[in-house]
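writing this on my phone so excuse typos. first protein, seq and then structure
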Amino acid sequence: MGFSERAQRPLVSVIRCSLWTSWAMFHARSFAMADAGEFQQVLADGGGGNEVLRESDAKFRAVFETMIEACCIFEMIYDDLGRPVDWKILEANAGYEKQSGLKDVAGKLASEVMPGTEPYWIETFGRVVETGEAEQIERWHQPTGRWIHSSTARIGGSGSRRLVSVFYDITERKRAEIALRESEARLAADLAAAESLQALSGQLIQDTGSQFYEQIVGTAIAILGADFGSIQLMDQEQGELRLIASRNFSPEAENFWQRVSVATGSSCGAALSHGERVIIEDVTTDELTRTSDNMPYWKGSGIVAVQSTPLIGRDGKIIGMISTHWRNPHRPEPHELRLFDVLVRQAADFIERARAEAALRDSEERFQQFANASAAALWMRDAETLNMEFVSPAIATIYGTAPDTFLGDIRRWAAMIVPEDRDTAMNHVRQARHGEPGVHEFRIRRNDGSFRWIRDTGFPLYDETGNVVRVGGIAEDVTEMKLAVEHQGVLLAELQHRVRNIMGMIRSMANRSADGPASVEDYRSALVGRLLALARVQTLLTRNANAGESLRVVIENEIGALAHHHGQYELVGPDITVSPKIVEVLTLAFHELATNALKYGGLSVENGKVAVRWTTFDQRGTNWLILDWTEEGAPLRDPPTRRGFGSELIEGKIPYELRGNAKVTIQNAQARCHLEIPLTDGESILETDAPAPITIRGGSLDMTGAPDLKNRVILVVEDEYYMAADIASALRSAGADVLGPCPTEEMALALLDTTKPTYAVLDLNLGGGGARFEIAAVLRSQGIPFVFLTGYDAKVIPDNMRDVPRLQKPISMIQIVEAVSRL
């Protein structure tokens, strides 16, 4: 493009200025624009004629057109207020067109060819026009999409609005600088994260407190440059993740994510399902999450991107999850994830160690509780030295000295063992040290001089390599057991003696009962009655072991068991206690008298009566009992033709075993008995050293003369089979309908839910374990009368049920029927 003559002079100055600027920027990277005087000097040096100017113009144009740098000449445009608002391009060289990609720009406005140019370019060019001082800037130019270095100078003096600029495309350099800065920033961030990770690692080694879960989350956020974070622990029983620590979640989101399962449409659920890291760059577009129930909580917290990484234990199982979240679409860089994975490994190890230490603490606490509560003494020794390392408090009770006494040297313990047992005890400890568990007993002498038997159980304790590192043991004081074993031998011998005697007595009773009965049924009835009498003796004697019993109770038990009502007998005499032997013999005697009275004498008719009177007297320094049995109102019968079992027992057994006198006479079918016996101590073969439950099977099922129970429905609750069967049979023989029998409380209550009986017979000790009153309460609430059938004394009956009739085992079936008939 040519220049008019009018424009030649300025053009020479512009080109020269441009070249000077280009050279300066190329060589020194600094620029200082010459003022108008210098331009004038340049012109002066170039000659004074048009020919010279044309020659100079040609030279400079050649340089302008061929220079590599982009160069253009433009004029600033101002608005009515004198503010720069645009510029007009006057001339641009080929370098400019190549660099900017713009063609044929001469004569056009910048806003026309480069719309969207940033305001700071206009501001910079306007400042150069105003001050006349050249400026260099490096800024981003959006229309060309390049970073530009611009060196701009004013053409001409004050008032000139023309400028010349040399432009350099520095995009690659800027990118390199930006990349360098980003790399340095990443390096600094990585270094800070590494330092944070190192610091956290040290803390995780030192402590397993819950506050470090928060620090793990904070470190994860720092490493990945995240905005949110969380850590969850695996609940193996439920198969879900439980939130343990988080940062920056909204309260609603934190509450919603307290527990996360595999089925949850989230990164956590997916990572839990697949066992590997899941990264979601944008939860609003990802197929997994865009329709998830989690979306309201992501939006509520401002979460857009998320990653979840499983925490894998050393056994390969998932033990937790670390997640981080970002406010904008994001994908972590590989170098970030590498550092993050170090944290993940440390966090998993930390969790496993924390759980192991918690389990160890729990185990130690349980062991300590067990050791403190144990009546046996627990101890542990070092396997190499055999020095005592631990003893439980119970050792003080067993050995009679403080636990600290035994800590340390094994000789402190060995000194308390009697010399005869010491070597054996030491050998057993050494055997346990070599892996041989064993149990042994030895004697010790306590500081108070007493001897005790100790049973010691020793066993080896191994480390993870299978080596014995400690010897453990349990020490028990078995002195009482040792004595009990010896005493048991004595008791066994005594038991054998008494059983043989009882069997002999029963054999004799059976043989003698065979004399007289007219039928097998009569024989059975007589024998069962006598055996029941023996049972009652045993019941009386076990009520107060080795203490005897009241004579009045002995007599009343036998007469009351057969009398129809209390008015049929009269007992007159002082309250005295007789020895077990007297109880045994008199019970059998009174049973025979009462049975005979029921059959033939004073108890056989309603207006009949039995009177028993007794007193005591002194004879040669010994207290004696004198007793008379008399009967009234018995119907006349022929006198007996032979001497029966009862007469033989009274007149033979009492004088022989009690060293007394006894005589039985029968006149007008009324028996009279007179006996005198010394009140001396004596053991019975039927007594025991401690009370024991009594179970007597059977009883007379002869219901002749029993009350009529027709049209009555009677519930029977009894867990002993034969007793229940006999009761049911007796009640049916009396005409009753039996409900049951029921062996359990559940069955009885079930029947009461559907059927209402007329009466009930209720065993108190149903199923063992003591008296129970649940069924009794139901019967009482439903208004059903009932009787208790029990081996317990009356004191077990609660006050609100003292009015319930109580039948004391052993008992005859006729008594049960009569008791039910009176309800």
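second protein below, same order as before
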Amino acid sequence: MKIPTGRRWRPLFLVIALSTITACASDSGCNGCSSGQPIPGGFPQAHRFDNAGQIRLTSSGVTYLEQNLEKLMLSFLPSGLTFTIPPSGCSSTTKVCCGSNPCTASIDITKVDITPKSGARLNLKLDAKVTTNKLYFAYDLPWPLGWLNCDAQYDTTAKSPSTAGLSADIDLVIDANNHNKLKIERKTMTITNFDCGDIDISGGFDCTIASWLCGLFKSKLLDGVQGPMEQAIDDLIKTLPTGIEARYDLAALLAAFDPSASGLLDYFVWGGGYAQTENGGVSAGAMGGFRAAEHNPCVPNCEVAGASCTPPPKAAITRSNIFRDNTRPDGKSFHVGIGVHRQTLDQAAYALYSSGALCLDVSSNLSTQLNSGLFSLLVPSLNVLTGGEQVPVLLAVRPQKPPTVTLGDGTWHTDKDGNPVIDEPLIKVAAKDFKADVYALIEQRWVRLFTVKGNLYVPALVYANGQGNLQVMLGDLSKALSNVSIANSELLAEDPAKLAKLFPTVLNVAAGMFSTSFDPIALPDFAGIKLGLDTGSITSVDNKDVLAVFANLELTQSTSASGDLIPGARDSQRVDARAHVVKLEVPPTAAFAVTHPDFSPDRSPAVLLELDAVVPPSLTPIGRRGIEWSVRVDGGFWRPWTKAKRMLLRDPLFWIQGEHQVEIQARLAGQHRTTDLSPAQLKITIDTVEPKLRLIRNAEGLRAEVKDLVTPSGELALRWIVDGRRVEGKLVDGVATLQVPADAKVRVEVEDKAGNIAQTTETRVADIQLPSTEEAGGCAVARSDAPTSSTSAYLLLLGLALLSWRRRRDS
């Protein structure tokens, strides 16, 4: 049996996909995002909608820009605020700056004032000290006077006021001729307090009396100063993300866990619809639209007659008052607010569904640990089908209806064991009529082991990890399925009700593997500014209809002049995380099976950690606020910060027998810029299964064949006990041999790295039977027509399938 060619879906992917699309939908982009390709004919107007999102720059955000505008502008002036005034008229009768020495001007900004005006206008006013070196000037006077050669030097401090004023209006324009898209325009800059009294003219008696030359010098100076300043402001405006529309190939996003996945998504996210100044800040709308470039047949089409599913509605969305004010719901101020309406998320989810991007086959492409070794512990009868071999397992999930998205408060707490527990998810993804098939690769054919059906619910938390990134944490998936039923499980001996108990564990493990394929989502930075988030920055508002992100503006390290992380701390002075294992709690092998009476999907193996940190001396004065830690397993999602010094760490990935890596970060509580960038690392080994040992006799002596689920064969320790005397054995590719007399008594034991020991009973060599030529596997020479163990297993599968088919036909 082969799996159908259409790729399968995993709703867990939706949480990441929605977050990634949101982070990437800007001109500036974000790490790991493709800029996409143009949409032929543009994004359809009929599928666009207003108020998909809202953007707010508060009064405190305006103040922050006032305080840091000079630093931002410096990043767009190659030589800083000192620049060259270019020569002009060098072949004419009026020569300016045509001498051998370049003319330069320097600007020292002393004050910045950004004032919101009525409508959608910001007035930018700079007070600056302006100085120049001596500007060479030559003027060809009428005959017979000849050339007048003078030097002019400008200095605003020569006369009160000591500064010049530079003023420009910045307009946020809703372009009615371009489908109400937002564009940002700079109006003409004006310069005030640029007086002749600030110009010193020298070069001889004729120059000192030539006050009529002031106007000419002034005009040239104005051009020399105004041009670079206008260019710097224009360059700053160009970096502001106003929107994007593109066709995005999702294959790159999905390749980490399904290289064969595909899907083309057209998306439109653009500022527009409205823009206005209010309450000392600026508010603007965002238009949106998401559409599959073409419907993928791997999912039912919801837009044909008689369809069993329906697209999400597109009702009119009203503006949220939260994004017209200057404080977030908890009363704290913020600089920038971003709101995304729930309907926008539903539309994005539907587009992902229809494009086929959510049709995935999740196998060893995601993790080599996704094999029958895991499942054979949970489902012991699988060993019969695989002949005891480890074979790849594939989780194929297919949607029958589009997922829907609802929002919550996004709250969590730390339990008594130090683990984060979601109280109310931020994002809740629901998928009705969920179906998933689990396959095993037997005899080079994908054989279905069982099908699970039910309604899927995936809770997720999105939070700031303190390093400028968004991090996703999935909630407990042990109760993710309701109305569960199992079908097509005839090949397994376990009761279907027991298998239904298994799938939440499989889902949890797959989700843990899935998380290792995604790095935290980097928030875009622009113009030397990035968004800073804290614990309460991400939530939902307006009766949980709007996903809200409240951020503060921060200068990037390259923009900040001092480079200080917090007062008294530099980049090299970060908290150093430390940790050690107190104990490991692993149930016996039998408790891993779904048939065991104590089996519980949410009671995985656990490790008790003792957490510590070293604080640099320069941070000690502010270190009294305490230390907090964040932990992740096998490169997955970082967990929210906790102050618990002891953590009983549970993770679904610990159901997988093998070696796991636990990483620990530390920081001063609430001070994200002190975060340890080199996490402490611990190796955790989960291994309860003893090696498999087979002892046979052939013409060459004794042969021990050994394999282990976790420890490589080269690291297993094998010992021969011959007549009570111990002889160390050497394993080569899992095989060890020994020549001993036929009357000797022999026992073999093999030990893995976890200390699990397998051994044979003491037996006289002559009594160890030679392998039958009919025996499956081993080293015996079998008849050419004799089935191997895996072939026998496949014939067993075929017979069971035929029997099952006959029973269904008879019934």
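The first helix runs from residue 12 to 24. thats all i got for now
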